[in-house]
Structures are given as C-alpha cells and as structure tokens.
Specification:
By secondary structure, the protein is mainly α. The chain has a domain of 168 residues: Serine Threonine Protein Phosphatase 5, Tetratricopeptide repeat, CATH 1.25.40. The protein contains 27 helices and two strands. A two-stranded antiparallel ribbon has the order 1-2. Helix 4 packs antiparallel against helix 5. The protein is elongated and about 100 Å long. It starts with 6 loop residues before the first helix and ends in an 11-residue tail after the last helix.
Length: 600
C-alpha cells in the first residue's frame, strides 16, 4: 500500500532536490507538500524561469498559492522569458482569489513584463472586476502604458469589450484620450518594407484607422494597436497615394488641395499599395472599441467622458468612420445619434458615407473583408440616410486610393482617387444607393481624378503609352465617370472580374439609370481615352454593347493607347480571352479589329 502518499510523492521522496516547480506544473499538491517537508527549494525554477508559485498562479490554484507563500515562495520572481511575475499570470487569468494573497505577500502591482505590460492591463483584458479593483486598491497605476504599442489598461479593456472594467478604470483616473504609439512608415526604407510585405505577406488588417479586426493579447502584447480594415495591428491609411510630384495650377483647379500631405516627393510612377500607407497607431480606447463593434464598451467610454469625435493620431480616422469601415453599422448609427460628426474624413478623404458603400460592396480579396454588416439591424442604406440627414456631404472626394479595398494585392485596375460616394455606388451598380444620394444633392457627374501613377494590378506592372494626338490630361484632371465605373472600368486590365462585386440588379440596370434618368454622356472618355463601350466590350457584354449603341455610343472610339472597342473584346491583355460574340458584333457595327490579341 502506498498509504497517504501518492506514487509520485514517493518517487520525489528519493530526490529531495527535484524541482518543486515540476510538481506544481502538474497541479500535484501532495507531491508539493512532500517535497517541502524534505526542504526542497520552493523557489527552484524551470529552464524558462517558471517557479512553483508561477504555476500555482497560472493554474488558478489559490490553495497551492497559500501553501507556497507559507513556505517562503518569492512573489517577485520573474520568468527568464517575458519577465512575468506570479501576479502578472494571475492577473492574466483575472483570478482575484489568487491575486489577493500574492499582493498581501508583497507582489509589485506595477510590475512589468519585458514589453511593459502590467498586471492591471492583463486584469482589464480579462474583464474581472474584482481583480481590477484589487490592483487599483493597492496602488496600480491606471495611466501607465506598455512600451511596445503604447496601450494603457483602458485600451486593453476596450479592445476586449470589458464595459464594466472601463467604468471602474474611468472612475480611478484612466486617461480615455490617450493614444497608442505612432509609427511613421515614411522613415522605413520602402524597398525593405515592400520586401517584408510581399516577400512574406502576413494577414492584413481590416480597414479601420485603418484598424484590424480583433485584439491580440497573447504573450502580453495587448490588443492590436494598428490604426484601423480589421484586429491585426493594421497600418493606417495615411500613405502617399497617387500623389503628384509637384504642385501645379491645374491640380488646384481640378481638386483644391490635391497633392498635399502625400509624402516627400509624391509618386509619379506605377506604385504598390503599401506605398499608400504612411502612419500606424494613434488609437484611443474608443477607437479600439468602435473598430471591434463593441457597443457596450463604446457606450461606457462615452458615458465616462471619451471624446466621440477624437480621431486617430495616425490617419485621422474618427470612431464613426472606423465603425463603418468595419461594418459595425449598428454602432455607427448609435454614435451618430450621440453626436458623432459625419463629416470627419480620414487622411485619404474617406468619410463614413463613402465607407458604408465601400464596406457593403467590398471587393473579393485574397484576405477576408469585414462581414459584420451582414448581422446588423441597421442596413447600409439606413446608415447612409441617417448620415445624410445629419449633414453628410455626398460630394466629398477621396484624396488617395483606398489601400484597404484590395489590401496589398489590388485586382481592380482602378485608382479611385477623387471618387465621391455616388461614384462608389455607380461602381457597385447600386441603383438604390445612387438614387438616395441624388435625392440629397449628389452630383452624378463628378469623376475620379488622374493620378500621377497607376496602381499595380495583380502581378502586372503594365505601362500605358499615350499614342493619341490629343493633349495629355494633367495630373488631377478628369478621370473615370460614374457611367464608365458602372460599365466595368478595370476589366480590361485582366483581373477585375476576380474581385469586383456589384448589386444583384446587375450592371446594365445601373447603366440604364445613369443614361436614362441622369442623362450621362455615353461617349465621355476617361483620362486613358476609354469609353463605357470599351469597358462593356472588355467584359464581352453583348446586351450592354447593344444598349449603349442604341443610345448613341460611338463604336469607332479609340483609346489613347490606340485600342478600338473591338480590340477590347479581343484579349487586350493576358488573362482575358477573346469574346467571339461581342467581337463579331462590334466588327459588324464598324469597329476596327487590329488583331492584337495578347492572350490568344
């Protein structure tokens, strides 16, 4: 018979110097007691620095914690990896019963991990009110920030949806206006950054300021502090965009202020989307809660005095905008009802009105797009109407391409710089959205602008050569019309069909609305000389071709790089096979086929 001792205890009895931490790791209190009776070192650590007291805290074992403390366990022992104390591990679990004896035993309530995370931050993320209160009652500093991202306890609570904890922290001096650290990506070597981004791509954020979609609190790192698209520490959409290399009078006439804040020298060439990102961080507790769609936490922060319009210090994204970007329309409507300003735009010119459409019709991408809008009571049209009722301007234009529409691998072939919400609705063939915007004064004739460079579509870096005798369109000059957007702009680049999403009513319905009710010019050409007919031909859309021609579309139109309408139906780039039926129709109507099929 083994008697009162377990087999493991007898085994350890033969080795009194065996690590007591191993027994604690197994939760074997009998063996721990046996070893202590043999004068085993209660503070003996494992290879990573974990002691028996660390394991007792890790396992939420208040009884074992008391046993070890009575035996002289060191409450300030730290692990070799991360510098965790037993109190930090107990706080991470939010276990007040374990924390109380540790604090009474002299544990430092303001101890820090190697990256500066404190017990209060961990306890706040856990949501345990008793744990948070115990720390605060014993002198924990609610204003302290961890050193990696600059998060404080209120930010940990907000990013983890701990409304009850937020109320306590706010009443104990937490700074609700504090912001996370800002990283200036302009200071990073762009070639190196591109190598990191494209050589070993990581899952991107969801749009947000442009924030990601969820806290990342493992290993004491705390919630993701990126300024925003969705919770992986997203860089903010504050890059250089398709900026002009210098200011000129033409830019000012076409778009006042275009080119400002676009980087040191701007971009005057085809560009990668990572070049549109310049800053990261600057998030407040409210921004973190709004990014995740945490209604109760957002309300708790506002009730405690958080500024509803405090934008991120990174790319100037407001709480209303970040909620909308990530599809949290219910929260966005609540913020609007509480006084959020619908006119606050981020550095790329995006407003909540544009964001509602951009979220609803987000393109298919290599990484997940926000999907929260599918489970909201407030629809995108409801939110748009509420925004417009509260003074949103439907004619505000983007100042940069929206990098988070396609993340680091854009397939659209479209630079939406200068786009309005109406243009975005047209691009999505969203007739309901267009009608709503028009009823509130949207101008259906505002185009995008010509940027100084072209966005790289997919893995292609195609140079467009202007061989026309026409004078060039200046940077900032007129770009793509809403009609061209509805007809399928970008499809002629070869990748748009893989990503473009549009309303169930179809593209032709939008084209008919624009032509028949808004009297759009069917022969208007964009900055590259393409007409709506070019785009319909690139998709092989025989029905739309016939409709546009019936409305006076010129089948003889030629783009600036010398492509006829028929050429667009004949595989103009790789990955687009010819459309025989459309090609035959266009030839019959008189469009010249130059027989330059690239994909044949």
């Amino acid at each position: 018979m083994l008697g009162a001792l377990s087999l493991s205890a007898l085994m350890y009895a033969a080795s009194p110097d065996a690590s007591i931490a191993d027994a604690a790791m197994q939760g074997d209190k009998d063996t721990v007691r046996a070893l202590l009776k043999q004068a085993a070192d209660v503070n003996a650590a494992q290879g990573d620095g974990m002691t028996a007291l660390h394991w007792a805290a890790m396992k939420n074992d208040a009884e074992l914690t008391q046993i070890l403390l009575y035996a002289g366990a060191n409450v300030r022992a730290t692990t070799r990896i991360g510098s965790y104390t037993p109190l930090i591990l107990a706080a991470q679990n939010g276990n007040a019963a374990v924390m109380e004896p540790l604090i009474k035993g002299g544990a430092d309530v303001n101890a820090r991990t190697s990256n500066g995370t404190t017990p209060l931050m961990f306890a706040s993320a856990s949501g345990n009110v008793a744990a948070v209160t115990a720390l605060l009652d014993h002198g924990a500093d609610a204003k302290t920030k961890e050193s990696t991202r600059g998060l404080n306890a209120a930010m940990f609570a907000a990013a983890s949806d701990r409304a009850a904890v937020i109320k306590i922290l706010a009443g104990r001096g937490a700074d609700l206006k504090a912001t996370t650290n800002i990283v200036d990506l302009n200071a990073i070597d762009r070639a190196s950054f591109a190598g990191i981004l494209f050589g070993n791509p990581a899952p991107p954020p969801a749009p947000g300021a442009a924030g990601g979609r969820g806290p990342s609190a493992g290993s004491g790192q705390g919630p993701s502090a990126g300024a925003g698209p969705g919770g992986r520490g997203a860089p903010a959409a504050d890059g250089r965009g398709a900026a002009a290399p210098q200011d000129n009078a033409q830019q000012g006439r076409n778009f006042p202020g275009f080119g400002r804040g676009q980087g040191k020298a701007g971009i005057d060439r085809n560009y990668q989307l990572n070049e549109l990102v310049s800053t990261q961080g600057g998030m407040t507790p409210l921004l973190l809660a709004a990014r995740q769609g945490y209604v109760e936490s957002a309300q708790a922060l506002l009730d405690a005095g958080a500024d509803i319009n405090q934008a991120s210090a990174g790319d100037k994204t407001s709480p209303l905008l970040i909620a909308t970007l990530n599809g949290h329309f219910d929260l966005a409507k609540d913020l609007l009802d509480r006084g959020a300003d619908p006119m606050l735009a981020s550095d790329n010119g995006a407003t909540p009105l544009y964001a509602a459409l951009n979220c609803e019709w987000a393109p298919k991408s290599l990484y997940p797009q926000p999907r929260a809008y599918l489970n909201q009571k407030v629809t995108y049209l409801d939110l748009m109407k509420a925004l417009l009722d509260n003074g949103a301007d439907p004619n505000v234009r983007l100042t940069k391409k929206i990098w988070y529409s396609g993340y680091s691998f854009d397939l659209s072939g479209v630079d939406e710089i200068g786009a309005t919400p109406f243009w975005r609705a047209a691009y999505a063939s969203d007739v309901n959205g267009m009608k709503l915007l028009v009823s509130y004064g949207a101008d259906p004739n505002i185009r995008t602008m010509k940027g100084a460079g072209r966005p790289r579509a997919g893995d292609q870096d195609r140079e467009v050569r202007d061989v026309s005798p026409l004078p060039p369109v200046a940077v900032g000059g007129p770009g793509v019309t809403p009609l061209q957007a509805a007809a399928g702009v970008g499809y002629g680049e070869g990748f748009a069909a893989n990503s473009h999403r549009f309303a169930p009513g179809g593209m032709l319905a939008a084209v008919k609305y624009l032509v028949e009710e808004l009297h759009a010019d069917v022969n208007a050409a964009d900055h590259e000389g393409n007409t709506a007919l070019h785009h319909a031909a690139a998709r092989g859309d025989v029905e739309m071709i016939q409709y546009l021609v019936s409305k006076g579309a010129d089948v003889m139109a030629v783009s600036r790089e010398g492509r006829t309408v028929a050429d667009m139906a004949n595989g103009p780039v790789q990955r687009i096979q010819p459309w025989p039926e459309a090609l035959a129709l266009l030839e019959k109507l008189g469009s010249k086929n130059n027989h330059k099929c690239v994909s044949c």
